[in-house]
Amino acid sequence: MSEIFKDMLCDSKLQGVLLLIDALDECSTGLNQLLDLITETSQLTSAKWLVSSRNWWQIEEQLCTVAQRLSLEVNASSVSTAVDSYIMVKVSRLSKLKGYKDDTASKVRQYLLSHAGGTFLWVALVCRELENTHRRKALQKIESFPTGLDAFYKRMMHQINGGEDAELCRQILALVATTYRPLSLAESTILIEECHGLADDLESLQDTISLCGSFLTIRKDIVYFVHQSAKDFLLSKEYTAFNQILPSGIAYQHHSIFSRSLEVLSKTLRRNIYELRAPGSSIKDISPPDPNPLASLKYSSTH
What we know:
By secondary structure, the protein is mostly helical. The protein has 3 domains: 15-62, no CATH class; 76-147, no CATH class; 161-264, Orthogonal Bundle (Arc Repressor Mutant, subunit A). The protein contains 15 helices and 5 strands. The strands form 2 sheets. The protein has a 3-stranded antiparallel sheet. Strands 1-2 form a two-stranded parallel ribbon. Helix 2 (31-44) links the parallel strand 1 and strand 2 (48-51). Helix 4 packs antiparallel against helix 5 (102-115) and helix 4 (76-98) runs parallel beside helix 6 (120-131). The two termini are 26 Å apart. It comes from Colletotrichum kahawae. This is Heterokaryon incompatibility protein. Keywords: Repeat. Pfam families: NPHP3_N, WHD_GPIID.
């Protein structure tokens, strides 16, 4: 596939090609091959790559021959200006959404400007919390947010541990942090025993996941971390969050997922589960029924 891709980029009729990769450091498999592809095609073709990544020495080392690189740390003032503009837009939208008075909007804006520390994600997470806060409590709420992502995550973890569904939230975080890919809502319900009764009520599961604060988000019924930094925080043994969600360790969590998968597969799978009339049907000719009895078993069947 890479050779076909390189041949496409070498086509003289193909002009003005711009390829974008965000968060290259989050590439979990094939990173070295991808870096080789970027380096080779940037030198042999007219294609241009726009790549963002955290400062990992492996990536820095392989991209050292690239002519143009921009360090956000070195250009902190430019980043800070962009974050300030982002804050102005977010507060303007919040004001319209929540009906803030001018004084409230001004104080929210000022707090964000003075505590953002040049971090887009921190601003986004704080504003997300404010969206779920009554306007009369907006100032009280925003002043409770500490500066910095790690401090923000610690606060969120403390809030989760003090909630009525603390144990369930910790189970959800442990599951999402250790599975090999993002799970669908349906897959999540069967891998957490307390959520098994929500298999036919995904809206309630969404509400439950929302209790996990600003660690998780749901897009098209798939559960993701809001950012790689959230997962890194939970899995770092430097913080108490690791022992809170994984008191017996990662290996034990994988064993629990494995055991739970065997249990639900044994209870759910049966001969001709799609009730096909012709057992010799090609898979291309089969349309899964709605609801699909295998939808929640995809992860368990694969991993």
